[in-house]
Amino acid sequence: MTYANDHTALPRTKGAVLRAGEVCFAGSGPGDADLLTIKVLKALQEADVILYDRLVSDEIMALAGEQALLEDVGKEGFGPQMSQEEICSRLVAHALKGRKVLRLKSGDPTVFGRLDEELVAVEEAGLAYQVFPGITSASAAVASIGQSLTQRGRNSSVRFLTGHDTKGFADHDWAQLARAGEVAAIYMGKKSARFIQGRLLMHGAATDTPVTLVENASRANQRVIATTLATLADDLAAAQLTGPALTFIGLAPRASAAALETLKMELA
Amino acid sequence: MTYANDHTALPRTKGAVLRAGEVCFAGSGPGDADLLTIKVLKALQEADVILYDRLVSDEIMALAGEQALLEDVGKEGFGPQMSQEEICSRLVAHALKGRKVLRLKSGDPTVFGRLDEELVAVEEAGLAYQVFPGITSASAAVASIGQSLTQRGRNSSVRFLTGHDTKGFADHDWAQLARAGEVAAIYMGKKSARFIQGRLLMHGAATDTPVTLVENASRANQRVIATTLATLADDLAAAQLTGPALTFIGLAPRASAAALETLKMELA
């Protein structure tokens, strides 16, 4: 860990953000430490104990205060992980001891963050809590390809969905996503790519509908794969992604952004 | 403007973020300066010129570097505002002079931010650009009511839409939003509340579907109005909201968060 970490002072925009005996649920954003909010950075510096998911990046964990006890709860990782019950019981136990407890999740805790189970446990223990938002990976990923999630004349709504649950999607969901101009950001969609491709084509989506995959959004090892609905599953298999990936249906990288991305890859 | 602004050093997470002769499109988040990302805070400090929308809060503009020329382009305000053409031409002119140009939009520039028109102008002038995401108001607002945008067993997708364009919504969009468990965040939905209420009820939504309005999300004057689909339009009219408001269909404030909110209001 050679990451620079000599923060000395924060802009005094407001005072301290954590309180003793409370649990703060916060989003770290997708990985780039510069995408932390000031509020979450303050929480990292103030916390007595930080329970963090494996997807929270090392460069972000390096910003934790020296006093902080760090507990890797492993969620969203591929190795052994702590049970949800155990995470909840630790959050409560730490807060009951009067500690400033930070529960740090990658991305935004309110978007596919499984926030509710932990929040209910804290609530049922009679403890106070706060929720601090984070940059969700769709937002960082779409910025990196020079596109908007919504655009006048193209789409007046955007949908975030998870690949995990797509098999339970109703037919009219698919019919709607299949329309020209629709934009959707699919989280954790790698395993379901072929299923999603099949459903959209079955519901009349154009084979040349642009699809963009962004792996490791905002991180130094970010990769962008521009494809179409026709070639999505094959291109995804060929790319052998290993990191978390976001799939945009209906968006291609902006030409100038794509050129920049190519340049970066050639220089790397 | 009595807002404290004695920032002296940022955590050296990375180096400078702006480059001379380029335009950076960035999101300020919904208003609370603590919800700025470190990246956008750096951009505020580095910029030679900042073109900002009226909804960017004073406490955020107070964090701009002393060297920065500040240009209020007025967008999204109610007073006189600069034309889109004029904004584009200024962005290009400043960048062509070799300045570090920051185009600061409230919220996230990729979510109902009208980013594309300005980005295309910069691209057509042969200039380089970057896009920095921001916390979108739905994310800050949902955190403040202790809820998630998605939740296992309730909804595996969430939709962001704008009230401005809802009249162009297809009937099956309404049918889908009307289903139990669906969650949507409606931006700029004050004027269309009665229309949206009517469409959802017509498509079979339950009259007791929870609806929550969050005005001035994340700001000191944030207000939360918990209502239902049956009483949405009347409660909205009674509340006489004057600030930007977000409407959540399918979400009520968590009981403990609601208690906190009431307490805050009583103390205020």
UniProtKB/TrEMBL annotation, chains A, B:
Residues 23-233 form the Tetrapyrrole methylase domain. Its EC number is 2.1.1.107. The keyword Transferase applies. One of its GO terms (biological process) is methylation. The keyword Methyltransferase applies. Pathway: Porphyrin-containing compound metabolism; siroheme biosynthesis; precorrin-2 from uroporphyrinogen III: step 1/1. It is an enzyme of class 2 (transferase). One of its GO terms (molecular function) is uroporphyrin-III C-methyltransferase activity. Keywords: Methyltransferase, Porphyrin biosynthesis, S-adenosyl-L-methionine, Transferase. Pfam families: TP_methylase. Belongs to the precorrin methyltransferase family. This is uroporphyrinogen-III C-methyltransferase. It comes from Tritonibacter multivorans. The gene is cysG_2.
